Amino acid sequence: MPDLLLELFSEEIPARMQAKAADDLRRMVTDKLVAEGLVYEGAKAFATPRRLALTVHGIPTRQSDLKEERRGPRVGGPDAAIQGFLKATGLARIEDAKIQTDPKKGDFYIALIEKPGRATIDVLAEILPVIIRTFPWPKSMRWGARSTKSGSLSWVRPLHSIIATFGPETEDPDVVKFSVDGIEAGQTTFGHRFMAPSAISVRRFADYEAKLKAAKVVLDPQARKDIILADAKQLAFAQGFELVEDQVLLDEVAGLVEWPVALMGSFDEEFLSIPGEVIRATIRNNQKCFVVRDPKTGKLANKFILTANIEATDGGKVIVAGNERVIRARLSDAKFFYETDLKTKLEDRLKKFDQIVFHEKLGTQAERIKRIERLTAEIAPLVGADVAKAKRAAHLAKADLLTEVVGEFPELQGLMGKYYAQAQGEDASVAAASEDHYKPQGPTDRVPNDPVSAAVALADKLDTLAGFWAIDEKPTGSKDPYALRRAALGAIRLIVDNTLRLPILDVAKSALAGLPEKSDAEKLPGDLLSFFADRLKVQLRDQGARHDLVDAVFSLGGQDDLLLVVRRVEALGKFLDTDDGKNLLAGTKRASNILSIEEKRDKRTFDGAPDAGLYRLDEEKTLAKAIEQVRSEASAAVQKEDFATAMSAMAKLRPAVDAFFDKVKVNDDEPAVRENRLKLLNEIRAATRAVADFSKIEG
Amino acid sequence: MDALPAHMRPERSFQGFILALQRFWAEQGCVILQPYDMEMGAGTFHPATTLRALGPKRWNAAYVQPSRRPKDGRYGENPNRLQHYYQFQVIMKPSPPNLQDLYLKSLAAIGIDSGIHDIRFVEDDWESPTLGAWGLGWECWCDGMEVSQFTYFQQVAGVECAPVSGELTYGLERLAMYVQGVDRVYDLNFNGRDGADKVTYGDVFLQAEQEYSRHNFEHADTAILFEQFKMAEDACKKYLMAGWNEGGNQREHLMALPAYDQCIKASHVFNLLDARGVISVTERQSYIMRVRELAKACGEAWVHTEAGRAV
């Protein structure tokens, strides 16, 4: 079956847009084919800086013929309906329609529509220009003389030519005939901008890819990445170094070249006095080059690896020299910034925060820092941190935001604070908190375990959460501009991973009280707690745990110690994996179901202790005894926060519950006995609430 | 090129470098203009770009524009930061289909051979909030150094560009430093001569950098500057108002250029105030808005002039 080759050749497409554009092209073309009844065998899209390309193989030559019966109006229906039906179906006269008899509704007209399938190449000629015109570039532009016309083509950068061929592997394919804004689809493209700029005529994908390769264009981005990575590693290795791998940079660099050539350059060793992260940020962000390290020490070497887009006739000497000059200038700037920063103590920078607004309703950065300091002092004793150190850490943690290096490289915030704090002789924990109080940033980020860092990190996150809650800027749907979900998840991980005991409600109340914006102190802490509960559910679900168990625990009420919640959930999960757990859950659910039916029927509840004098059967007595025993054992264990023991106590309930349901008829004919039995069922439900609300558990 | 005397070769002299670019773009049909006689932050502010980018008429021009960035002054102590430097500006309306090729040829004309240099077009979307302008294009890199800005204007002075112009801006000092192989801008050979006849960039501009840095950061009189901003703003509005001629069969404007001069002036005064650090973060936004309002009104006036409107 025939294949489609499509290439859209343009001026340089931004690197960051290429992967998605290739994907969009594949998706749009194949979706449209399928919608046209053309099922294909496979498709693959590619992007280079100057082209998007797509191959779709195994497309039928034609659409199959379509036969469709369309039901029309009632025989003898209004003329307008009949005329409409004729128009919609293309029938010339109503006599051409069949009549179908429906025993209930009478006779209807039926039109038999036969739509002969069209040649695929004609379908392509119709759909491709539409796809090109509606292509979802994040930003697109007009250009040239045609840009005066309304409806002129918009593309990411000027589009120069289009290849569109369709045909079987064994024959010369046909050009799909269409044009977009004056660009006729054909079978011509161009090679590498400098090394092989001439026009190339291509027929089908294999031929296209091979000819491009000969014309110094590696079409497949993955192949370019592989080349860059292998060559860069090799270059580093040859000099006894090791490449510092960087996937994001690799992706970007592969989007900047059609013919990657890795080259190594060096810089003056004196620059190695700058922190390695600053060197790397300078070289990576500004110059898109990789850095290398000494495998023995792990420290950066005074080398870098650039990826040129050309095999230079001088072997790259001039290119390396040029890049070295730029990197030298950049590193001297960085060194100057770093050394300038070191001349000012972190605390002396804080005054400037008076001028910087954090958020118009939440005051200045200076006010925010004060709030974090106060909250840190409250949290510190709860998490085992030295209060004085924690306060000092909170005082300095944000100071590096006003340094030159962080101004230049915002991603180094915190880290630079740590270096500057170390340089001015701060305590190691205080210095570390500058960097670590931002952590964890995401589900895979490291969680700081120094109590000082943990205290500042929790204060920072809780101030943020309380603040945005107070001004009603909560995340909605996919919108979370202040990354509040991440902050809550960060707080949860800090608490759980460090096994911290923190009464979140109290801390939240305190955080809210310190804000400039007055807020509803009654409602908000609870709101915030349920936000934590939601985050915890998401996190547990991501870890493969059951989120309904989180509900079962939070539903008990008063659960604002997240660590205990997690432990309870874990113990509950383990318990429910056992046979005892499963059966007890089933028994409890059965008890609850019966109760809710009977409660509805009698319009009353069955609270209160059962009367021992009304027990008629042994199973009732055994169950009552078991409940009493389990309740005291479980609550003692819960008191000791030993949830595993509480759960095994629960397990003892199971045989009694099972036997009860086996032998005892709840709805006894004697009303007093019935009521007593229902009360006993209620006791089962109550007893299990020592560990969780079983009614929230699924299954 | 071989006919050139050695001291005029672009790789030897700064002035030869500028002349080579002018000659190249003259060959492509550009009118070679002289710098605009006002202080401005970039070549884009020259009415030959800002205003001429608007309206349907063809327009191809190239010129050097001294650019003032008061905040970038470093008292002559930084090897490549200047508060006054030269931009070489090319504008072609409509953007020709081979503009990238023309650009690469212009690099060849100043001695940058694409066979041994690594030339790249790296995404850079251009936006000038003060001019109410934006476009898409690239930074052009040569061996890892940004040497030019390449933009397809989509909107200027709040007006949709139809047709779209292509704009090229070369940072002349930086490019010349690269071509001459010097690391300090003041060491650039200005006239291409040797020995006692040699004049360097430093000979021409070092003292100016020192004096203007003092002026920009320490002495520029902020009270006067605030006053000047207001005056320029008022004058701009006044000339705009006076320029409208509603008579006849079409609405036309008769003083777009003088009004726009006042917009340029307001913008430069704002830059000076900014360098003096007397404009707070929140005020900054409002000043930028005020200049933009002027620019937009000038653009609106321009498209009602002889040169700016449809034939």
From TrEMBL, chain A:
It is found in: Cytoplasm. PROSITE patterns: AA_TRNA_LIGASE_II_GLYAB. GO terms for molecular function: arginine-tRNA ligase activity; ATP binding; glycine-tRNA ligase activity. Pfam families: DALR_1 (PF05746), tRNA_synt_2f (PF02092). It comes from the Bacteria. InterPro entries: DALR_anticod-bd, Gly-tRNA-synth_bsu, Gly-tRNA-synth_heterodimer. Residues 594-685 form the DALR anticodon binding domain. Keywords: Aminoacyl-tRNA synthetase, ATP-binding, Cytoplasm, Ligase, Nucleotide-binding, Protein biosynthesis. Its main location: cytoplasm. GO terms for biological process: arginyl-tRNA aminoacylation; glycyl-tRNA aminoacylation. It catalyses: tRNA(Gly) + glycine + ATP = glycyl-tRNA(Gly) + AMP + diphosphate. GO terms for cellular component: cytosol. Its EC number is 6.1.1.14. HAMAP family: Gly_tRNA_synth_beta. Belongs to the class-II aminoacyl-tRNA synthetase family. Tetramer of two alpha and two beta subunits. This is Glycine--tRNA ligase beta subunit.
From TrEMBL, chain B:
It catalyses: tRNA(Gly) + glycine + ATP = glycyl-tRNA(Gly) + AMP + diphosphate. One of its GO terms (molecular function) is ATP binding. PROSITE patterns: AA_TRNA_LIGASE_II_GLYAB. It is found in: Cytoplasm. Pfam families: tRNA-synt_2e (PF02091). The keyword Zinc does not apply. It is an enzyme of class 6 (ligase). It comes from the Bacteria. Gene3D superfamilies: Bira Bifunctional Protein, Domain 2, Class II aaRS and biotin synthetases, domain 2. This is Glycine--tRNA ligase alpha subunit.
